[in-house]
């Protein structure tokens, strides 16, 4: 029984289908010699299935499964190469396509043949999957995301299509939600705004698709296809590393900023605000604390938030600065409270 990625939630899961397997009590023996351990050989030259003990022909016209041509490779064993592209585990079947050339001498026959082939080739669901997989790969390439994230998004989209979870939603919106979830599972989260700018899907529709997938598969941040309930800490600190890299800030500033965000969360500072706003305000607070000159405009351009929003989060942190700034940072000279201003 094959493993199914992204299993449905327990309360919506249908009963498992019955499993079928070969009957191990059945034995194949030669009817002539009755040998309990027969030695049956396949003679591909003549296409016969022969018992090596008595020579009785047990079958004829067997299919030769070996390579269709001679191999001159130096490697040992048979040449495993076959005609066609590599099989895709995300698609059902072998998918050995036939391409019709555009060269027809100008009589238009090639166009008619291509239209007829496209109409009769595969089902509508398979064509939708191929189109969606191509869009997922293109958008992930534009985001410079690795292939693992693209594969996770494809698996999630296929499961959503099979279960008919987001019926009636546009394909672009479903793809955008799958990419958003795949990024969170791979621990490289992207914000709603970044996904919307990439796919041109509205934030409202993206949120609806995300909620539908999250409830159907019981997904949590940092989950995987094998264990959707596994979770790792996610939030504003997950965005800090990427934002600090764009701002050319050293790694120690990144680690301090993450610890400040966690300490502020424990105190209830910034509750109800978006992770993007908290990340921008925390970076500005840490830059002043460590005397790294980064303007509000630069931080706002990287985080995608306004300067007033960053200042608002900064004022919350400044009010409780003595609680969220560790004393050892000041003792070691890594931070200076005098660099913080009330405005």
TrEMBL record:
Keywords: Initiation factor, Metal-binding, Protein biosynthesis, Repeat, Transcription, Transcription regulation, Zinc, Zinc-finger
The keyword Protein biosynthesis is annotated on this UniProt entry: yes
Protein name listed in UniProt: Transcription initiation factor IIB
Lineage: Eukaryota, Fungi, Dikarya, Basidiomycota, Agaricomycotina
Top-level taxonomic group: Eukaryota
Stretch list, region Disordered: 1-20
A biological process term (GO) from this entry: RNA polymerase II preinitiation complex assembly
Homology family: Belongs to the TFIIB family.
Cited function: General factor that plays a major role in the activation of eukaryotic genes transcribed by RNA polymerase II.
Domain TFIIB-type: 26-59
């Amino acid at each position: 029984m094959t493993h199914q990625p992204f299993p449905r939630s327990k309360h919506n899961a249908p009963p498992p289908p019955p499993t079928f397997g070969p009957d191990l009590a059945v034995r194949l023996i030669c009817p002539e010699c009755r040998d309990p351990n027969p030695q049956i050989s396949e003679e591909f030259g003549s296409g016969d299935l022969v018992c090596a003990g008595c020579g009785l022909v047990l079958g004829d016209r067997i299919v030769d499964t070996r390579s269709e041509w001679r191999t001159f490779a130096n490697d040992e064993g048979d040449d495993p190469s076959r005609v066609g592209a590599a099989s895709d585990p995300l698609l059902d079947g072998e998918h050995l396509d036939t391409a019709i050339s555009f060269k027809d001498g100008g009589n238009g026959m090639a166009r008619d043949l291509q239209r007829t082939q496209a109409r009769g080739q595969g089902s509508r669901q398979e064509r939708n999957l191929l189109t969606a997989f191509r869009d997922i790969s293109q958008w992930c390439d534009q985001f410079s995301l690795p292939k693992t994230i693209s594969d996770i998004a494809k698996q999630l989209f296929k499961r959503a299509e099979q279960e008919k979870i987001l019926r009636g939603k546009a394909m672009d919106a479903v793809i955008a939600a799958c990419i958003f979830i795949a990024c969170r599972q791979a621990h490289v989260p992207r914000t709603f705004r970044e996904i919307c700018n990439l796919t041109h899907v509205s934030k409202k529709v993206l949120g609806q698709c995300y909620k539908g997938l999250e409830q159907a598969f019981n997904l949590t941040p940092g989950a995987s296809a094998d264990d959707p309930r596994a979770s790792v800490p996610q939030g504003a600190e997950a965005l800090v590393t990427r934002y600090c890299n764009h701002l050319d800030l050293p790694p120690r500033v990144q680690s301090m900023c993450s610890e400040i965000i966690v300490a502020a969360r424990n105190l209830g500072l910034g509750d109800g605000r978006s992770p993007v706003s908290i990340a921008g305000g925390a970076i500005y607070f840490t830059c002043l604390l460590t005397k790294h000159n980064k303007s509000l405009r630069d931080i706002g351009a990287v985080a995608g938030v306004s300067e007033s929003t960053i200042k608002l989060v900064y004022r919350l942190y400044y009010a409780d600065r003595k609680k969220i700034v560790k004393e050892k940072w000041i003792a070691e000279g890594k931070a200076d409270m005098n660099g913080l201003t009330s405005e």
